[in-house]
Amino acid sequence: MIFTGPHPPVHVPETSFTSFILQRAEQHADTVATVDVTGANAYTYGELADAIGRAADGLRARGFRTGDVLAMLAPNLPDYPIAFHAAALAGGSVVLLNPLDTVDDLAAHLNEAGARLLVISPTELDKAQQLLLGTPVEEIIVLGKADGATPFAALLTDGPPPEVTVDPAADTVALLHSSGSTGHPKGVMLTHRNMIANVLQTSLVAPLDADEKVLAVPPFHHAFGLIMVMNASLLQGATLVTMPRFDPETYLRAIEEHRITRLYVVPTIAVLLAKSPLVDRYDLSSVREIVSGGAALDPETARLCRERLGCRIGQGYGLTEALVSFMQLDHSEAPGSVGRNSPNIECKIVDIGTGEELGRDQNGEILIRGPHVMKGYLNAEEATRQVLEPDGFLHTGDLGYVDRNGELFIVDRIKELIKYKGQQVSPVELEAVLMTHPKIADAAVIGVPDEEASEIPKGFVVTREPATPEEIMAFVADRVAPYKKIRQVEFIEQIPRTPVGKIQRRALKEWGCTTR
To answer: Looking at the record's lineage, which domain of life comes first (predicted)?
Structure first.
């Protein structure tokens, strides 16, 4: 049985992504499009569109051609959408990098994508200079100023925007990273059409008024931040107030001072808004709506937020490979639901053993089809075939059901990813690190529930000789990005495995969640 949502189908324009996003820029020319939370740096829509066109011309003048790749390594800044859309308008694609990743992780992404140019914030200069060795990067371009890097302003020519033809359905415009069902991160290829479709879908389901102000905290290198926060806001003429890093008091002060109307949050921030005594020190009365994403939002936390702030709160569901696919705009209507299909999106639930299509209120794997579903994984045809069916349905790896009202409920994850504060953490990657410790004979990693982080990585370890949890956690922390750190360690005599050697994570979850 194929489930569709309540929304009528919409036409997806056959154009470039940047042309689509900037279609109303002239109409909102004098409205502030992006501004730093401190107010120190801002662009109106007129200035934003002009800078994108001039930077795109500057990239072409530097030899950046159709199909070339530009990488971005920066937190949320007012200039971020300018650099992103300049590369897209010049006919290239953009690989979006996580500043929290290690140099080794970043180098692997740059090599895989073949990125020639690396755009950074000044804070990432040391890491960027290390990346010049052993990667295709030819030049570092900095948003601002930093010794040894080309200022982004140097790209701005006096010429008109370049006229570049793209194939919206075939040409990749963004490369994000996802671990998929298992294993190490893979490059997710998103075409102009994928991105246009999803920005259009989300803006129709969760519309913004032109006078709205959005606090841009979810990172732009993440699908949630890239689609809903950055691009859907710019399409609709809202003002983006960017925050490079999250700090509770700075966050709450920004809501008050900028009179923020729309918050996009991960569950960790929702917990802060629902329960922290800090909230009472600030005037948050301007907030009209909160949308949560990145991980499941607890219904009780949603209720507390709604009652405390006097606003609507809902959540979206998606994944890097299928962006934002479902939206629930009022959590009070169906607590625990992630909503109904956005326009043009089909869903089916299949038996995880037989693949048989299931009906309403039956648990199975969630499959999604629509114009927003990725083109595939970069340089990974077999991995692509494993998740994309010939008929276009994508295996999400999530277990859930659709109720009689068409609401989707997520029950569990078949795939093994851990969601730590909205970031994806691969247990397989952490297990590989653990197994390099000289005292460890065997290891397994799972996610265990945590009120603030949604989940935290917990390691189960079989040792050859005595070791302490602190020693092992420090060992891993020295070798991975901060968000990937193991937060708990438990010593056991044997890792439970199937006859073919696969870790029985469900058994560990039952054990781990009761022995915290």
So the answer is: Bacteria
